[in-house]
Amino acid sequence: MSKKPKILATNVSTQLDKVLWHLQKYGTLTTWEAFNTYRIMRLGSVIDILRNKLKYNIETENIQHTLASDYLFPNARNGKGTHAKYHYKEVHDTTEQKNMFDKFFS
């Protein structure tokens, strides 16, 4: 697998750029973080493009949690839910590449 370029903050303009930049900088991203930080509502589809079209190595961890609203409405659900946490596993080089997604989406 070839090394992927590291995206720079100055090159971030699309949702793909934002997610990739965040993963490269912080290592992980959850759907809640993506929505609150970048207003991305369908993080799973962005991750799918990064994985399958652009061939980035990103793993999914399913995290179980208790829903706060279930304490108020115990009959509404079973009290548990899951959310995805994406882990960036790619080895990249540090060379700058502008418009790195243009060739895939032109």
User: How would a crystallographer describe the biggest sheet?
Assistant: 3 strands, antiparallel
List the uncertain runs: 95-99
Secondary structure tally: strands: 5
Terminus-to-terminus distance: 24 Å
Q: Give the % helix.
A: 25-40%
Principal-axis shape = elongated
What is the architecture at the second tier of CATH? Orthogonal Bundle
- Work out the oligomeric state of the chains in this entry: single chain
Element-level helix/strand string: EHEHHEHEEH
Taking Cα atoms only, what radius of gyration do you get, to the nearest Å? 16 Å
Average predicted confidence as pLDDT:
80
Number of helices: 5
- What's the level 1 CATH class? Mainly Alpha
Describe this structure in words.
The model is unreliable at 95-99 (pLDDT under 50). This protein is α+β, with helices and mostly antiparallel strands and 106 residues long. It is built from 5 helices and 5 strands; from the N terminus they run βαβααβαββα. It is 37% helix and 24% strand. The protein has a 3-stranded antiparallel sheet. A two-stranded parallel ribbon has the order 1-5. The chain has a single domain, classed as Arc Repressor Mutant, subunit A (Orthogonal Bundle), CATH 1.10.10. It is elongated and about 50 Å long. The longest helix is centred in the N-terminal third of the chain and has 12 residues, at 15-26.
